[in-house]
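pinned: reference chain
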Amino acid sequence: CNCPPVPRGPKSAFWTAADDPPAMDFFRAAQEAMQVAADQAQQRLDTASAGKRMVEEGGPDVALKLETKARCRKTVAADAKASASLDDVVRAYDEAAADVARVLATNSCTPEERYDFEQLQGMYEERREAYRAAANAVGALAPPAPFVSAEEDDAIKYIWAQNRVRTAQQGASQFAAEAGAAAGNVAAGARGGMQG
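pinned: its structure tokens
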């Protein structure tokens, strides 16, 4: 039949996603995604709780171990950054020495400039080789960072947060003591002025 399709009226107030299969798929997918997110959040909370418990139950020795792992990890990261920086300096000196050689191949320099560039070229090449040797030396000895579990990582963050709070509290206490002493000095000065 070549009959025109029957127009559908507006959905009733009682329409549900079950009446529309594509909408049902969308809602099911959204519900599954929300469940995955909720499971991940719960897992993260459990891990964070385990880290806090590790610090609280382990005492100062465990805190020292965790702080040491954190310091080692930070040191190894700084090492990697410094090693990469040495390679960058080697490349920079390569480029600078090549530029100086190109300038010296022209007639654009005064005798004084030519002398300066010749001196710089030797210094740049010497310095480049020193950096290259340093880069090779530290590149060959890259140490690993200690293993840090997810629970330990959270425990380290917990210790860090505790230290920040402790530092803030000490600063506030010191400020209060200094303010109290200053107020006492002002009061004593005022009393002394009234007596004189």
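why pinned: The chain has a mean pLDDT of 81. The chain has three helices and no strands.
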